[in-house]
Amino acid sequence: MFETLSDRLTSVFSSLRSKGRLSDADIDATCREIRIALLEADVSLAVVKDFVARIKERARGAEVSQALNPAQQVVKIVNDELIEILGGETRRLRYAKTPPTVIMLAGLQGSGKTTLAGKLAKWLRDQGHAPLLVACDLQRPNAVQQLSVVAERAEVAVYAPEPGNGVGDPVAVARQSIDHARRQQHDVVIVDTAGRLGIDQELMKQAADIRDAISPDEVLFVVDAMIGQDAVSTAQAFMDGVGFDGVVLTKLDGDARGGAALSVRHVTGRPIMFASTGEKLADFDAFHPDRMAGRILDMGDILTLIEQAQKTFDEEQAAKMAEKLVAGDGFTLDDFLEQMMMVRKMGPIKNLLGMMPGMGQMRDQLNQVDDRDLDRIAAIIRSMTPGERQEPKLINGSRRARIAKGSGVSVTEVSGLVVRFFEAQKMMKRMSQGMGIPGLPGGRN
Ligand code: GDP
After folding, report:
1. Which of the following CATH numbers is that of domain 101-296: 1.10.10.10, 3.40.50.300, 3.40.640.10, 3.50.50.60?
2. Fewest C-beta in 10 Å: which of 19, 300, 393, 423?
3. Which residues form the SRP54-type proteins GTP-binding domain (predicted)?
4. Domain residue spans in the chain?
């Protein structure tokens, strides 16, 4: 997700790193590079222009010229502005004062709307809600059945006309579903509407009619992030035809260049509220602009990591992990090993590693990581003495040779692990010092 953009921006910043002062020419050159990186990522031109103008204005101001480390300050500015463009504060779902809360989904066919309905339902159920999924796509063959299957997988109730019952009236189904939800004490209703392959008036009218019939608390526009610039024009068309309160980006796991995410809020004025990152029900979460900016700038995503950990482990274990992450220098190879073993339970290792600060640059290696590599790392750490694990600085050349022999790997592998551990430790220490910005990606002051 956003890999190309992330790589480009990271390399722009690394060329600034060695500079003690930034001249106007340096700033102009950096802004030019940022502009190219954004355009290549399919961000719309209007957004790019605004964005770069703001960076330039701030970079030339006092906050940079007086900074001890001007290059870092530029990264901070870009981070701030990225958060801003992604929507600033996390926009949470608004629940109705009197249940049920009604959420209506709109979007093109193939955008991932039905899948998303299931993901959202499961997400709500996990938070203690009792959602009802409503099938109002009565045009596409199988749409009703597809939603029923999704509901079953998400273990939530579904409201749908009987299959084979003819075309039916989606507006009536939507209206009846709200009464049904009240009777059955569902506190959230998710209404899936029909999509077409392209925008058409009939589709818009039907969606608008459903909206008028059920007065949703939230209309969410679902859009496939992989369609690039088209996401913006589609969003605009739905904004004009139906109107919506928030955006859900789907297929962010694909080779998305990030353009849609960075443009849609600016162009429509509506925030991205959720992101979908795969075909499974669990590949879904609320969208946090600050965390996304951090990922784009390759500053890792410690918060998401911690949340994921909380889902997998009990509170106490997670709190311990969070504490260690934040404490930075209290973090030893023993912790590293312990975490790695816990992490094995959390899902594909490369996804998790991708969230760690500074790991973005190691993406090619990450793609080759398989869980057996963890066993090699574990073997290396286990061949160290307790003293070495607590104080990895002790691990000199002869100790490395001994450890390599003990764990059946090469000395280079042992050295690689030690170096990576120090980098991770340093990165965490920086984060814990409340800088928010853990230095330049992969860099040293
Ligand atoms: P709808 O026509 O808008 O209801 O779209 P569907 O929910 O049927 O999804 C269309 C296709 O996209 C299906 O094959 C889904 O499995 C797939 N899909 C949906 N969301 C995601 C996602 O976040 N990532 C990926 N890779 N595929 C997705």
Report:
1. 3.40.50.300
2. 393
3. 271-284
4. 3-85, 101-296, 302-435
- Do 59 and 74 touch, CB atoms closer than 8 A? yes
pLDDT at 31 over 50: yes
Exposed, middle or buried, 21 (CB in 10 Å: 0-12/13-18/19+)?
A: exposed
- Distance from residue 251's CA to the centre of ligand 1 (Å): 7
Is the domain covering 3-85 a CATH 2.40.150.20 domain? no
Most trustworthy range by pLDDT among 109-123, 325-339, 430-444: 109-123
Lowest mean pLDDT across 166-170, 181-185, 244-248: 166-170
Ligand 1 centroid, distance to 288 Cα (angstroms): 22
Q: Is the ipTM of this complex over 0.95?
A: yes
**Number of other residues whose CB lies within 10 A of the CB of residue 348:** 11
- pLDDT band with cut points at 50, 70 and 90 for residue 439: very low
Pocket of ligand 1 (CB under 6 A): 107, 109-115, 195, 250-251, 253-254, 276-279, 283
CA 225 to chain centroid, in Å, comes to 12
Q: Which class is domain 302-435?
A: mainly alpha
- The pLDDT of 357-374, averaged and rounded, is 63
Indicate the pairing of strand 284-286 with strand 272-276. Answer: antiparallel
Report pLDDT for 367: 64
